[in-house]
Design goal:
- It is a single chain.
- With about 160 residues, the protein is α+β, with helices and mostly antiparallel strands.
- It folds into 2 domains: about 40 residues, Winged helix-like DNA-binding domain superfamily/Winged helix DNA-binding domain (Arc Repressor Mutant, subunit A); about 80 residues, Lrp/AsnC effector binding domain/regulation of amino acid metabolism (RAM) domain (Alpha-Beta Plaits), CATH 3.30.70.920.
- The chain has a 4-stranded antiparallel beta sheet with strand order 2-3-1-4, with helices on one face.
Length: about 160
């Protein structure tokens, strides 16, 4: 992977803020010709610096008014338990993000649900019923916001 320069970082910051910018708008914002800008964006994609473009959806407007973080503790700390439960957690339609952690919590799972009954059923059917799971702790999310990575200074 090539070293990111100031212009690459400006491109990343701009796209992280608004991935729908046209190449022409992006080029003007970072002070490049559109062809040079497109070449840089394609290189950033090819090198995996830009891994995806996403739409940020409003969970409430989709009827998913409840968010929670579920801390999962495994019974045994063996590779197959981590793999099978990790695959299972990522496959749930309610899952927003899955973090595999070190410490007393093995996985932290961000989920969205319609309501508390939906969350109750999800935890029973998809978490506590799993043989790999020793314990879960559920925390309700009162607010959620996402921020971008610090690309301006290189982290």
């Amino acid at each position: 992977m090539s070293t990111l320069d100031r212009i690459d970082r400006e491109i990343l910051a701009a796209l992280q803020n608004n991935a729908r910018l046209s190449n022409k708008e992006l080029a003007a914002q970072v002070g490049l010709a559109p062809s040079s800008c497109l070449t840089r964006v394609r290189r950033l994609e090819t090198e995996g610096v830009i891994s995806a473009y996403r739409a940020d959806l409003d969970a409430r407007k989709l009827g998913l008014g409840l968010q929670a973080l579920i801390a999962v503790q495994l019974r045994l700390h063996v590779g197959e338990a981590f793999g099978s439960i990790g695959d299972h957690l990522r496959s749930l339609p309610e899952t927003v993000a899955v973090y595999c952690l070190g410490g007393t919590t093995d996985f932290l799972v961000h989920v969205v649900c319609r309501d508390t009954e939906h969350l109750r059923i999800l935890t029973i059917q998809s978490f506590t019923s799993r043989p790999e799971v020793s314990r879960i702790e559920t925390s309700l999310v009162f607010s959620f916001s996402r921020s971008g990575l610090p690309v301006e200074r290189g982290g």
